Please model this.
Amino acid sequence: MRRTFVWRSPPKRMRLASLFLALLVCHSASSQPIDDINELFKWVLELGGEINAVVRHNKDGVRGLFAAKAFVENDVIAAIPAATILNTGSFNDSFAVPTLTVLRELKDRNSRFKPYVDMWPKPDGILNSCNMDLKYAPMWKSAYWEKSVRDWENHLKALLNGDLDADLEYTIKEMVGNDPVTLDDLKYACAISSTRYVSSLRRRRLIMAPIFDMANHVRNCTSTLSAYDRGNYLYFMAGQEIKAGDEICYSYGSLRDDYSVAHYGFLPALEDPPLLSLVDMPGFDPDMPYSHEDAPSDDPFDGTPEELQAEMARLKGIYNVIKSTPDALPPKPKGEDYVYDLMKDLEERRLNSLAYEIQRIAGLLNVKAEL
Model:
């Protein structure tokens, strides 16, 4: 199964060419339920599935998937029956289809996916550009990412108000009937769907698969998801030996810090040396979609002395703008506000990566870089 996430700020009618699995690390362990995990496992097994893993909170307090036995490469971690997989639309549907599909299941007390729905993070336990509170938007200190958050807010408002009905495959009423729907409902459903669907190229569908979507990100993890192209199962396969009791990972790709926060609501493990944020990369084009299959190169910038000087000046300009931009919100004690802490940590990482790259280029030019 090929995985690609194509991203840009949502246009008037967002089209999703193909999408990358997005698993969210949530704000607190309490918002990632595991009390009902037996019901989910029972449901999957009754429908013919196989699960060789358990779910518990890891050392960071985040819900994760752990090996119930030892695995070697290509062993089946989980066989997920088609009957448990939520079809959230096709590659060519608008952004509203996955959102409204998830909303329908959230609103339906008799949903056949209830064991799966009950395991989704609660509204206070999920974060991405769909549901970020606008008060945090200026903390990006990036016109691109701030616009992204505001665009999602505006598009979901337009969806709620019916302004997009003529352009959509389905309307809210068609999907959920007369159940009352709020903007917060749409933000939550959008965040759930956009952080959990995976693409299936043969079926040309976007799907959400239980069990598998509890595996947390490790950049170089080799575990794989089978092509959903035969039989009635999606297979989550071990990519290497895994000891019984070890946490099972899955790689979401090479994540720049800002991209990870915008889409998944967490900061990935620190890179050494630090990588520039996506928006700070040389040649970054805000009008071009991002694809994990064509991600920015990790190779360090190089060129003629003139090109190196120009790049160093560009990076210094970004660095100085961030440092001189006042904080949009008053300081808060660490641990009081997850989103505030996340955005401040992102800013610190961004400054550190800029400083590192400026100093690296200065070394190539044999000059001193003042910051």
Summary: Residues 1-30 have pLDDT under 50 and may be disordered.
